[in-house]
Amino acid sequence: MCSALNAPVVSVFMPTKDRLLQLQSAVQSVLAQTYSAFELIIVNDGSSDSTADYLNELCTLDSRVRVVHHVKPAGAPACRNQALRLARGIWATGLDDDDEFKPGRLEAFVTYATMLERHHVSFSALYSQDEVIEPQGRRLTRKESCVHFENLLMHNCIGNQIFARREVFLEIGLYDEKLPAWQDLDLNMRIVSTFGPALLVDAPYYVFYNDERPDRISRKRKTLILDAYWCISKKWPQLSDRARQTLYLQTLSSYYGFPISAQDVSTYFKLSIKPSSIVRLGHLLIERFRVTSAARCRRRTLKQG
Q: What mean pLDDT is predicted for residues 264-270?
């Protein structure tokens, strides 16, 4: 393991496996930050390409980079947890190895968090808007300015990377390495439930590449998402039937686009069958139809272009 000498303010953690080209872009987006008091902890999760050589050389070129190599893959949640345990920063945040930071991301987070604490404004974590790169083009997210626990039952409106004090990650028990999916949602739920609402930095400081690569397992395997739902549901025995039903709707959302079976509908109504339940399912079906129709229009436009 390579290690830096000076204590950083922010620790950025990044798991990686066999994505050398994307990794290089992700790393450069961190090294190009306008805020320089950070460390970048990269956990190489048993890569079989030239990732190890690249990272070892990187350590010699920039003392802010720290690298851990795994002989055998342990999974992204375990890598993130290892990095967080090794982290020395006051604050911590993550980056996926196929995404990128905008140059001012860390500076914006540190500045805003410092201002909030100076004025005694309570918050658990910060998050930003995203610039999403899709086959159809680029778009910006429209996240809400404040996220409470109840909001996360409807969808992961924080996103997959949160900025918080390192002890916040540690005190809630880090990422759940046993979950088959939804590790980010689960982490966000526990952070917000324990430490209060998360607040938005309203600028697109994170670039999220939303393509259809086969290694995006959670987008492909419906059983993983359903298993994650039941695991998280069991963690919160105090949830009402309505709350569990709200969380279950995430498995049927247009984000995944899984076919909705009779079994899905049956499971949904077993949790609660009230007029409001019927209305909410109807709204979801309408939204899925709208998203599907829009996607078809975009595909036709791309073909014609």
A: 93
